[in-house]
Amino acid sequence: MLRIAVLASGSGTNLEAIATAIEEGEVPAKISVVISDNPEAFALERARKHGLKTRVFKLSEFPDRNSFDKAIIDLLIEESVELVVLAGYMKILSREFVRTFNMRIMNIHPALLPSFPGEHGVEDALSYGVKISGVTVHFVDEGVDTGPVILQEAVKVEEDDDKETLHARIHEVEYRLYPLAIKLFAEGRLKVEGRKVRILPEK
Ligand code: GRF
Predict the structure, then answer these.
(1) Whose CA is nearest to atom 8 of ligand 1?
(2) Site to substitute for ligand 1 among 108, 113, 152, most atoms within 8 A of C-beta
(3) Which of 17, 61, 81, 97 has a CB 3.0–4.6 Å from the CB of 5, allowing a cystine?
(4) Rounded CA separation 56/41 (Å)
(5) Which atom of ligand 1 is nearest the CA belonging to 13?
(6) CB neighbours of residue 107 within 10 Å
(7) Mean pLDDT over the full length of the chain
(8) Which of 103, 109, 112, 110 is nearest to 190 (CA)?
(9) What is the pTM (predicted TM-score) of this model?
(10) Tell me, what CATH number does 148's domain have?
(11) Which domain holds residue 116?
């Protein structure tokens, strides 16, 4: 069974969707640990509800960013984690982190990359006035939201959408796409060729 870690800073609804998909036997993986940089994150609450191990790393308790990331890397190695899943994790990973888990870190972004990267993907798409936005699951490289795209799905922007209504529909797509991406990884069906991620057929 693929051992994964989920890193989350906030509400953790994606974590919940992944945990549920695993419990229902849809994804052949095990969440070894849920890590947060925010002791108040509701994601921790959700993790405990699913009986998952949780760990909190507070940046203020480390001398610098690199040692903070190093402590997380050490835990991931100790837990024999094979895939790191970022689910609303609000910190940029250090170069060492990305290199240690090269093409074994996934992120989900609430817009169609390369449009609207960064922290405010939903708002930025809305204020630009696009008619279609969506969801991107991608591998993490050393840039911000720049890694190879694994899955994408479009979400139509409605005339009267605000940040909340659009994000709610984006979330619904995320809850399907993220477990699917993890399933494909667990089944060894994601082949990274430069910028392209080839999805291999079912065996
Ligand atoms: C999601 O919309 C995700 O795309 C973005 O952060 C949000 C996290 O939501 N990276 P949640 O904490 O999973 O509810």
Answers:
(1) 88
(2) 108
(3) 81
(4) 10
(5) 14
(6) 23
(7) 98
(8) 103
(9) 0.97
(10) 3.40.50.170
(11) 2-199
pLDDT value of position 137: 99
Instruction: Tell me the backbone φ, ψ of residue 134, rounded to 5 degrees.
Output: 160, -155
Q: What is the CA radius of gyration of the chain?
A: 16
Structure token pair of residue 189 = 């069906």
Q: What is the pLDDT of residues 51-69, one digit of tens each?
A: 999 999 999 999 999 999 9
Bridge partners of residue 5, in order along the sequence: 33, 84
12: its two tokens: 């953790």
Q: Is the peptide bond before 28 cis (omega within 30 degrees of 0)?
A: no
Other CB atoms within 10 A of residue 14 CB: 24
pLDDT at 203: 80
Residues annotated as catalytic are 109
The total domain count for the chain is 1
**Average confidence (pLDDT) over 173-181:** 98
Q: Which two tokens stand for residue 68?
A: 């903070």
Beta pairing, strands 83-86 & 149-156 = unpaired
Structure tokens given for 197? 């991620």
Is the model's pLDDT at 16 over the cut of 90? yes
